[in-house]
Amino acid sequence: MSGIAPAGDPVIPDYGQASECVINNGAFCGDWFVDQWSTVFWPPLVDHIYMVVIAVVIGFIIAFVAAVVAYRKKWLAGPIGIVATFLYTLPPLALFQLLVPFTGLTLLTVEIALVCFTLVIIFQAVLSGLAAVPDDVKKSAIGMGLDQRQLMLKVELPLALPSIISGLRIATVLTVSIATIAAFVVDSGLGSPILKAVSSPFNTQFIAAGALAVLLAFVFDGLLVIVGKALTPWTRARVS
Fold first, then answer.
1. What is the pLDDT at residue 171?
2. What is the 3-state composition of the chain as percent helix, strand, coil, each rounded to the nearest 5?
3. Does some domain include residue 214?
4. Number of folded domains in the chain?
5. The model scores a pTM over 0.90
6. Are 225 and 236 in contact (CB under 8 A)?
7. End-to-end alpha-carbon separation of the chain, Å?
8. Does 68 reside within a domain?
9. Which position among 38, 160, 180, 219 has the lowest Cβ density within 10 Å, counted as fewest Cβ atoms?
10. What angle, 0 to 180 degrees and rounded to 10, lies between the N-to-C axes of helices 42-72 and 191-199?
11. Cα dist. 53→47, 72, 107, 169 in Å?
C-alpha cells in the first residue's frame, strides 16, 4: 500500500502518521525504521538467516564429503573441481531461470542455487587444508599406530580446520549476498524490502534493508571466526 504523492516525487509507503523526515524522503528516517522494524524488516531478516543457514549447511556437507573422497582418490579432484567451478561461474539470476521450469518459483529453487555457489569454495578449502598437512606429521602418526580413519579424524582434519573455517567464512558471506537476489524468485529475505524500495524509491527502506544484509554478513563472519578460534586453540598459542 502506498501513499499518494505529487507527480515526480518519490512514492512514500503509507505506514500511518508520517514524520517530516518520511514526508521529505530523508536520507534515513530512524523513527520510521524503528516503527516498522517488527513488520517490514524483522520477518525478512529471519527468512534471510534461514535461507543462508540451510544453504551453507547443505553445501558444506556435500563439499566436505566430496573433498575427503577427492583427497583419498586423487583422480577425482579434477572432475569434481570442474563441476563445482562451472556451477560457481553461472550468474545467479541465470541459474534461477534454469531451475524455475523444474522447481518453480519456490524456496527450493533458491536453496539449490545457493548451495551450488558454496560448493567450489568449501570444496577447495577442505581439499587444500588436507593437502597442506605435512607428510612427516602423517608418517609420525602412522608410526604411532593410527589407521587411516584415525589419521583423518585425529590429525588431518584438525590441522586442516583453519583452511576449512576460512572457506566456510567466504562461502557464508557470499551466500548472504546472493540470497538478496532471491527476491526475484520468492518474496522472502532482505532482498524483498530492497526490491520493493527500488520500485518505490523510499530511501530509508532501501538503505536499511541493504545495511541489514551487510551487518548480517559481518555477524556470520564474526561468529565463524569465534568458532574457528575455539576449535583451533593451538593457533592462538602459536601466535602468542
1. 96
2. 80, 0, 20
3. yes
4. 1
5. no
6. no
7. 58
8. yes
9. 38
10. 130
11. 10, 28, 13, 12
